[in-house]
Amino acid sequence: MERAVLLPIACLGLLSGCVSTVANVVTAPVRVAGKAFDLATTSQSEADEKRGREMREREEEIGKLERSYSRNARRCREGDIDACEDAEKDYERLVRLVDVRSREY
Prior knowledge:
Elements: H1 2-40, H2 44-77, H3 81-98
Helix pairs in contact: 2-3
């Protein structure tokens, strides 16, 4: 009689590991698909951070070009022909950066 009671109890201990493994195998595709979806999509906060970073970089570039344009325009007024050409190039780049219609959204 003791054997009849001990054998099912011993088997339950062995089966608990099997049930856990089966549960992991069954849910694995769902977990993998969820992870792939997370990696493939961008959250709103990530998109906001990227947009903010792009705006800051653009503003930094505009600031650099404004300083370069001012410096080259001053040199041009002083008679430096090369600075006149550089000032024109800086101005063209500034117009492209500042022009709202040329921005990508």
